[in-house]
Amino acid sequence: MTAVWTIAGYGLREALRRKVFLVVCLLTIAFLALYWMGTRYAFHHIGNVAPPEGIDPRTFAGAFLFGMAMFGTLFLGVVLAIFLTLGVVRGDAERALLQPLVVRPVGRSTLLVARFLGAAAVCAPYVLILYFAGMLVTGLEGSWWPDRIVMPGLELAGGVLIVAALSLLGSVFLSSIANGIAVFMIFGAGLVAGLLGNIGHVLNSHGLVHAAKIAAWAIPFEALYQDALRSITERTSGLTGFLLRLGPFGGAEQGGVALRLWAVAYLGIVGVVAIAGFLRRDL
Amino acid sequence: MRFRLDRFAARQRIASRFRGFGDRTFFVASWHHSECTLGDVPAALAVSGLAKRYGAVEALSGVSLEVGESELVGLLGPNGAGKSTLVKIACGLVRPTTGRAEVCGVRAGSREARSAMGYLAELFRFPGWMSADELLKLHQRLAGSEGGERERSELLELVGLLDARARTVEAMSKGMQQRLGIAQALVGSPRLLLLDEPTSALDPVGRRTVRTLLEELKRRGVSVLLNSHLLSEIELVCDRVVILLGGKVVAAGTPAELARPRGVEIETNGGARTYAEASRDDIPRLIAELVQDGQSVYGARVLTSTLEEVYVEAVGGETS
User: Fold this and answer.
1) Residues B92 and B224 in one domain
2) Quick one: B182 and B284 in the same domain?
């Protein structure tokens, strides 16, 4: 167990010293500042808006803006997760950083798990802080608070951890650049699946909705994001609720407990495949 | 003579540095010996019929060799001969296609095998933000060493980096990083040391320090497999030499066994005379003949081929 914490600590320190972390921090500050300005402006002018009947403008604006903030949070979290894990195995081996660690009496599986924990220790708090910051800005500026407070944040963090695990798996087989591109493409595929679901709902196409649902579950970070979107307006009904469930960058879809269990199992499967690949890899 | 004195002085300095560290090394060595009788002490490294293929490329084909207790074995061969692959299999970084590799009697690459060895890769890098002390601390934790601060100080002193213990890796010269790599490989007092080109980035003084260090390690009971292109270095410190070519062992033995007689040289008042066909047994007769001819004889020596000549002969002048 000491080895796990030692390597996790090593990974954590390395993550914090990388320039990418600084870049993400600057992007985060810029994002929050812009989000605060946008939210302030939107709620300031909300009294001048005459919405169609059945739409509560404050709820709609609050949930829509916060939904976009959640997408921004997911996106920044994913960027951070990918950059922290894309070169853990092959990248570090090519830079000759990995070999001195692997020859120590620490199992390769321990090393991989520890590097995942190191990345998770950076990414999960980052996502949660950003999520709650966005919520605070929306609540203070517009007096709108999501229906569920904690679970959507945890689901976003879970989604980012799944991307980190996929990136770690990719790092066993692909070079850093190839892995980065591949994982960003998978993230993009999730985004497209969400948009397809949106279109399917509007066109009332069951086939499209079904395809989007399968894609979202195949890459469950997207399903977790959709469930998180659904959770923030869980008790919102009527036309407002319907429009909000179309969601920004992917529709809101209830996943429930089954999704959360599947996400945990998915993490386990990805982990097992990554470890099996790493154990067979020549360095 | 001066060189010998320098070597002696350097050896004394290293020996004095080793005293504290050496106690622990001795402890480790004696523990290993107490585990079994002298007859069944497993070789530090035993490799048998080892083969490794990378796709169509055969890096190793049926290599067998042993590194005994306290033995320093030099591994030679042109680039691409399979030396690094062999070392990587021994430390568990690469899996053999066929054959067997054991470290101290257990399968190479197993946790027990990795506990018993230290490794310095040919190309290695440490995180630039880490200080020398932090790096050794990290490796102490991973190796399960309880040497603590004392072991770190001794290792840093051993490689001449005690004053640079707080310096980050990125602020060190290549030579300093190489010496830090050697200190890292010695963390946990390993029984077998696998060194892949440990002196490639060192200046002549640094090389001599490493050479003296290797001699001291051998004296302390540590077995070493040294992969190097520096033939003079190998010749000076190694008990045995193994030459690889195309993934096969083409020559092996002590430097004396590998050396071939190249005649006799006798120094007379008329200059040095070489008798290419003569052997050691011919020297009295040759001297008697020269004296009979009225020549003064000042010395005689048997000529043998250098390791460089043996190497070039073994690899047939091949280079990559």
Assistant:
1) yes
2) no
CB contact under 8 A, B139 and A282: no
Bridge partners (DSSP) of residue B120 are B195
- Residue B298's H or E segment, with its range, is strand B297-304
Is A252 or B153 the better-scoring residue by pLDDT?
Answer: B153
Q: Are residues B283 and B178 in the same domain?
A: no
Taking only residues 9 to 48 of chain A, the set having a beta carbon closer than 8 angstroms to any beta carbon of chain B reads 10, 13-14, 17
Residue B33 pLDDT grade (very low, low, confident, very high; cuts 50, 70, 90): very low
Domain shared by B273 and B212, yes or no: no
Task: Give A-chain residues touching B123 at CB under 8 angstroms.
Answer: 96
> Are residue B227 and residue B299 in the same domain, yes or no?
no
B252/B230 Cα distance (integer angstroms): 17
- Chain A (97-116) residues lying within 8 Å, Cβ to Cβ, of chain B: 97, 99-107
A104 to B88: CB separation less than 8 angstroms, yes or no:
no
Count of domains for chain A: 1
- B234 and B300 within one domain: no
Pairing label, strands B192-196, B98-103: unpaired
Residue-wise pLDDT tens digits, A7-43: 888 888 877 777 777 888 888 999 999 999 999 998 8
Q: Which of B93, B123, B125 sits opposite A103 (nearest CB)?
A: B93
Chain B positions contacting chain A at CB under 8 Å are 54, 88, 91-95, 111-112, 114-115, 117, 119, 121, 123-127, 129, 138-139, 141-144, 181, 184
How far is CA B309 from each of CA B17, B258, B262, B301, B314, rounded to the nearest angstrom? 36, 10, 11, 18, 8
CA distance A247 to A228: 11
What range defines the domain where residue A252 resides?
2-279
Give contacts of A115 with chain B, Cβ < 8 Å.
none
